[in-house]
Amino acid sequence: MRYQSELERLTTLDAATIRLACSSSGSLPGLIADAVDRCIAFDDRADEESADGHHDEATLCRQEASAWRATVATLQAMAADAHTAGHEAGAA
């Protein structure tokens, strides 16, 4: 539940995607890859906006990239917990 709350707070993923992430650890690698791609895209766009002198837009893009980085970190933590739980279940 704490991961769901964190993902909801970040507002990067829609409700259906959050439910999927929380209910299916098999979905996490793809979700992580997508979140990394989005982070990179927003960082690239921020650089372009900054180079064009659009500093407010660059700031917004950097904030969005930051939210996606936090999303990646949360999804990776979920994957690590799922991996650990799987190993503990296998050892039982």
Describe this entry's structure for a reader.
By secondary structure, the protein is mainly α. It has one domain (2-91). It has 4 helices and no strands. It has helices at residues 2-10, 15-23, 28-51, 55-91. The radius of gyration is 16 Å and the shape is elongated. The model has no long low-confidence stretch (mean pLDDT 94).
Report the β-strand fraction as a percent range: under 5%
In one word, what is the shape? Answer: elongated
- Average pLDDT for all residues: 94
Major beta sheet summary:
none
Q: How many domain modules?
A: 1
What is the string of SSEs from the N terminus onward? HHHH
Structural Rg? 16 Å
How would you classify the helix and strand content by structural class?
mainly alpha
Q: End-to-end span in angstroms?
A: 24 Å
Number of helical regions: 4
SS elements, strand count: 0
Helix content, binned percent: over 70%
- Provide the low-confidence segments as ranges: none
Pfam families: Chap-C
Protein name: TY-Chap C-terminal domain-containing protein
Domain TY-Chap C-terminal: 1-79
InterPro entries: TY-Chap_C
Please tag this protein with its features.
single chain; 92 residues; mainly alpha; 86% helix; TY-Chap_C; TY-Chap C-terminal domain-containing protein
